[in-house]
UniProtKB/TrEMBL annotation:
One of its GO terms (molecular function) is protein-L-isoaspartate (D-aspartate) O-methyltransferase activity. Pfam families: PCMT. This is Protein-L-isoaspartate O-methyltransferase. It comes from Quercus rubra (Northern red oak). Gene3D superfamilies: Vaccinia Virus protein VP39. GO terms for cellular component: cytoplasm.
């Protein structure tokens, strides 16, 4: 999978659940658990542009910072699920928007 590829620009995606379903369709989200926790944390709560929160694109969040594209969050979460074993720890550095830690907390 090409990590810098954008999978859609938002056409018709207006709900968090639909965004996660697209990530599943494109094979970025492969597990039921990652899909479930991503559906519980609505990306719209973390972006400034309320008209396009589900675009697969980085978006400004203020203070000269951006939130990563949804496929990047999904890729990281899927990698954690695939590789993190009991007793191991993960450190998220630079999560200014706190979206990924919010999702991991629900895990």
């Amino acid at each position: 999978m090409q990590l810098d590829k954008r999978f859609w620009s938002g056409s018709g995606i207006n709900k968090n659940k639909a965004m996660v379903e697209n990530l599943q369709t494109y094979g970025v989200v492969r597990s039921k658990k990652v899909a479930e926790v991503m559906e519980k944390v609505d990306r719209a709560l973390f972006v400034l542009d309320r008209n396009a929160p589900y675009y697969d694109s980085p978006m400004p969040i203020g203070y000269n910072a951006t939130i990563s594209a949804p496929h990047m969050h999904a890729t990281c979460l899927q990698l954690l699920e695939d590789n993190l074993q009991p007793g191991m720890h993960a450190l998220d550095v630079g999560s200014g928007a706190l979206l990924t830690p919010s999702i991991v907390f629900l895990y």
